[in-house]
Amino acid sequence: MVNDISNLNIQAINATNVVDYIAAQVKTYDKYPMYAIRPLQNNCIFTILVNGELLYKEFTLEKAGTPIMLNSLILKTGKQTLTYRLYPIGDLMVQEYGKGDTVKTLKKNTSMSLKIIRYDDFKTGRGLSDEIVIAEHTSPTKEGTREFIGAGLPYYEHTITFNAEVPYENEGWTNGQDLSKFDEEELEAVVKKRNLQIGELYKNKELDSLVRIEHVNGLIYAKANYRTKDELQGIFDQYKENVLKDKELQPMEGYQMELYGQNRIVTLRYSITNPPDPRMQGMPALFYLYEDVDGDTSAQFLSLTFYLPKGKALTPENLQIL
């Protein structure tokens, strides 16, 4: 019998004890600081990365109504980076309003404004009155004008920094190798093979195997978001339901490989600007079809990002999921 479940060997973790295992490692603190952003875009679609990892994407004309939490990508106290990437709206005006042309470059009135906010204690106060603005940014304009500095470009990127103080520390992908040093075709082949291996586990409903190689990594996010055991159980129950449903794995075709986090993170995704199908825009390359509660066919995309720990050879089995 294992007395301290937090020290379980990875091979001993399974669907019956994974929630206890993760919950045992989420500490309690005097306060639970949480960071978030409020982005406001105009005439563009965009993605946001924090510390080099994808946090959020918006490929419609909708404005975010609620703050987007950052803690999952804040590994420890200190300087953090936030990068936004802006893209033209393409056919969105035509799709939503039935008028306009296809927009292939960023316009003069394109802009991105954002506020980075802090909640001193997310457990006790998370309303508007509890928000402390620690940084504000508006995309730059051409000198002496109100014209967006990236007007006419097919893509624009900007990075800002801010400081955060959190009571936890996660290693995350910081121990990963620089993947740009590997042959690009070899790297892509290895990442694709790992995707397909995990896809087969989903197809065959191998819950315990997936728990060991995938869901355990939720520990990073559980610690950063101060998850309670009940919250973790709810998250796992949904995960379990997804794994055990009948599904039809789809071919991986037409994707592109992307590196993040100073080239230590790799993923396979469909293009934001030229996907093989508009419904795949910016989505992960691995997905399956299933029958939803209404009897309709729906798609579930598996967001798999990997890093290769230092000292490990480039093999599918050595790629670790974030």
Describe this structure in words.
With 322 residues, the chain is α+β, with helices and mostly antiparallel strands. The chain folds into two domains: 5-27 and 171-321, no CATH class; 34-164, no CATH class. The protein is built from six helices and 15 strands. The protein has helices at residues 18-23, 92-97, 184-203, 207-213, 218-224, 229-244, and strands at 34-42, 45-50, 53-58, 68-69, 78-87, 111-119, 132-138, 156-164, 248-249, 256-260, 265-269, 287-291, 297-301, 305-307, 320-321. The strands form four sheets. The protein has a four-stranded antiparallel beta sheet, with no helix packed on it. A hairpin with a 4-residue loop joins strand 10 and strand 11. The longest helix has 20 residues, at 184-203. It is globular, with a radius of gyration of 21 Å.
Helices and strands, with pairings:
Blueprint: H1 18-23, E1 34-42, E2 45-50, E3 53-58, E4 68-69, E5 78-87, H2 92-97, E6 111-119, E7 132-138, E8 156-164, H3 184-203, H4 207-213, H5 218-224, H6 229-244, E9 248-249, E10 256-260, E11 265-269, E12 287-291, E13 297-301, E14 305-307, E15 320-321
Antiparallel strand pairs: 1-4, 1-6, 2-3, 2-5, 5-8, 6-7, 9-12, 10-11, 11-14, 12-13, 14-15
Record the strand order, biggest sheet.
Answer: 4-1-6-7
Question: What is the C-alpha radius of gyration, as a whole number of Å?
Answer: 21 Å
SS summary, helix count: 6
Helix amount: 10-25%
Q: What is the mean pLDDT?
A: 93
How far apart lie the N and C ends? 30 Å
Count all strands and give the number.
15
SS-based class: alpha+beta
Poorly predicted regions are: none
Strand content bin? 25-35%
Largest beta-sheet characterization: 4 strands, antiparallel
Q: What is the total domain count?
A: 2
Order of helices and strands: HEEEEEHEEEHHHHEEEEEEE
Shape: globular
